[in-house]
Protein: Ger(X)C family spore germination protein
Amino acid sequence: MKKNRYYMSAFVLMSLTLLVGCWDVKEIDKRDIPLIIGIRKENDNQYKVTLYIPITEKGSKLSRTITQKGTNVSSILEQLKTNTEDALYYKQVRLIIIQNNLTKEKEDVSEVIKFLMKSKEIPPVALLAITDENIEKMFSSINEKLDAHATSVIDYFHKGADWAPEISTTRIWEVYRSLFSYTKDIAIPVVNAGKDTLLSFEGSAVLKNGKIIDQISPSENQFVNLFQNQPAKGKVESLGYASIMVKNSSLQIKSSKKADDLMVSSDLSLKIEVLEKKEGATNDQIQRELEKLVEKRFYNLFEQAQKNKTDIFGFGQHFRNQIPYDELKNWREDYYPKLKVNFQVHVKME
Structure:
């Protein structure tokens, strides 16, 4: 009998050890899981953070927002964890939206990006975007759209290459890396609330060492995507007398350095389908006109980028093995302004 009691006591004690590690576990329905974090700076130099949280009730398409103000982003996120009724879980954040008033000061942008990258709770693969609008009003506008599921905002950036080739995606770790890069700058998508749609893509802000230098249009952003090996498939172009769709694209890049002369040769091949054309327009005419149009757009964008000393195409990356390491820090000032680019477009009919 005593022997049975001994075994029973041992069994109970062993069972208790299995429960020790689970005492602080929160059920999923007792957590608030923000999908988007909005960050802006106030006139008093304090930060305001807004969380966009989907409501997890079955069948719900709604979401709610929580806003907190403080001296820095990290302290605000901690305050929110303290003040909310349910446990806040930041590891599922998919998008960070920064209001453009914060991007005016290089130190502010760098501070926020460095915190987001080093945070152990916010995933570095989360997307980053900039908005020209008040973030709270933007989130409110999104919620007002009929049949708008909370995850639709994230889906906006992942339509697929065939549907929206102009839209780019930029992740936290990519922006963080650009803060320290001598030879490559980065473009961050700019989005506002749409009038009848969830969002409106306004192009991209060009970030150079943590400071916004310029903003490029959606059509110009297409070139940045091309040089990042993202195809132009699905792009529709109007020539006035004809409309075409790009069915496939490929870009070949070759760099060369002879003494102080730097050259990049880029050949863009486009396979197109003619959607409609006016009577009398020939395929040869469409091909030549499209080649000239695309080449002109590129050179206009490159000229502006070179003037701003912003290497959004990453040309400097191709010369990292041809320029002494100690001189790479001078790429934008000494080498990039002298760079010559031969950009040619070759159009073929499908």
Observations:
- Residues 22-26 have pLDDT under 50 and may be disordered.
- The chain is about 30% helix and 30% strand.
